[in-house]
Design goal:
By secondary structure, the chain is α/β, with parallel strands linked by helices. Helix content is 35%, strand content 20%. It has 10 helices and 12 strands.
C-alpha cells in the first residue's frame, strides 16, 4: 500500500479505514474480520469518533489494535458524543441487526464515514459545545478508550454552525501538541457547509470532506486543493452503474496526490479490491 505524508512525520496509507459502522450497523465479528484484512492489505490509517458505534467504537478499536500502535495512524474527533439513550440501546443492537437481516434488508449505514449519524434519530447523539475545556476532556477520554498516549489527528466533527472562538480552540490544540497528546488537527465537514467555514479553513493542518468524483463542485475542489493535504470520504456516493470502484479510487488518487481516501468497507473482497486499486 502506498503511503502519503499529510503532515510531516505522519505517514498514512493512501486508503483509510472508516470506523463509523463498527458496533452500529456492523457487529464486532464482522468488523474484526474486516480489520484483519485491512491490516493484511497494508492499510494503516484508521478514522473513528466518540460517537461511532453509539459510543463504543473507540474502545473496540483500541482493544483490537493493542500491540500495533506504532504501526498505525489514529484519527478521532471532537464535537459529537453518544447519549445515555445510546448506552441503553447497546444490548438491543444484535436484535436490531437480526431483524433487518430477517427482512432481507441491508443494515442501515451510520451516515457518512465522518458523521456517525444514524437512521434511528438524533436522540442517540448530542452536540458538544466547541470550547477549549470540552476539547481537552474529549481528547483525554479518547486517549483512554484508544489505549494510546497520543492521537495522530484530532478533527472537529462536522460543526453545523460557524466556529466561534477559533483562537481559543487553536491555543488549546497547541498546548496539547506541546504535551504530545495530539500531533495534528483538522476540520471534518460536509461540503454543503463549506461556505460557513471558509474563514477558518487555513487554521487547520488537514481538511476532511466528502468528495465523490463527478459530484457537484469536484473540479473546483481539484483546482483549489489538489496540492493540499486532504482526507476524502464518501468516494462512491452517486457512483454510476458500471463504474468500477478501482476507477473511482484511481481518479481520486491521481487528482489529489496528497490525500487519504477514506472508505467504510467491511466486505473482505471490497477491501482487497480497494487496496489493490491504490497499491
Amino acid at each position: 500500500m502506498r503511503t502519503v505524508e499529510l503532515v510531516a512525520g505522519i505517514k498514512s496509507s493512501v486508503l483509510g479505514f472508516g470506523c463509523a459502522p463498527i458496533l452500529g450497523s456492523v457487529d464486532g465479528a464482522v468488523a474484526r474480520r474486516a480489520l484483519a484484512v485491512a491490516l493484511d492489505e497494508g492499510i494503516t490509517h484508521f478514522d473513528v469518533a466518540p460517537s461511532y458505534g453509539y459510543g463504543q467504537a473507540e474502545a473496540w478499536l483500541g482493544r483490537e489494535l493493542a500491540g500495533r500502535r506504532d504501526n498505525v495512524v489514529l484519527a478521532t474527533k471532537f464535537g459529537i458524543r453518544a447519549t445515555a439513550s445510546a448506552r441503553l440501546l447497546q444490548p438491543l443492537k444484535p436484535l436490531v441487526r437480526w431483524a433487518k437481516k430477517l427482512r432481507g434488508r441491508r443494515p442501515a449505514n451510520t451516515g457518512s464515514p465522518s458523521s456517525g449519524a444514524t437512521t434511528l434519530g438524533d436522540r442517540f447523539h448530542a452536540r458538544v459545545a466547541m470550547e477549549p475545556a470540552n476539547l481537552r476532556a474529549s481528547v483525554e477520554k479518547s486517549l483512554r478508550a484508544l489505549r494510546t498516549d497520543h492521537l495522530d489527528y484530532l478533527f472537529l466533527h462536522e460543526p453545523r454552525e460557524a466556529i466561534v472562538g477559533i483562537d481559543a480552540l487553536a491555543a488549546e490544540v497547541e498546548r496539547l501538541k506541546t504535551e504530545g497528546k495530539i500531533r495534528a488537527w483538522g476540520l471534518a465537514f460536509m461540503r454543503d457547509r463549506q461556505a460557513m467555514h471558509e474563514a477558518v479553513l487555513p487554521r487547520f493542518d488537514v481538511l476532511q470532506y466528502d468528495l465523490p468524483p463527478d459530484g457537484p463542485g469536484y473540479e473546483r475542489m481539484r483546482s483549489e486543493r489538489a496540492g493540499c493535504s486532504n482526507i476524502l470520504f464518501s468516494p462512491f456516493r452517486g457512483r454510476g452503474a458500471g463504474v468500477p470502484r478501482n476507477e473511482v479510487l484511481s481518479r481520486l488518487a491521481a487528482d489529489f496526490p496528497r490525500s487519504v481516501i477514506l472508505c467504510s468497507m467491511f466486505n473482505p473482497d471490497h477491501i482487497r479490491t480497494n487496496a489493490r486499486a491504490l497499491a
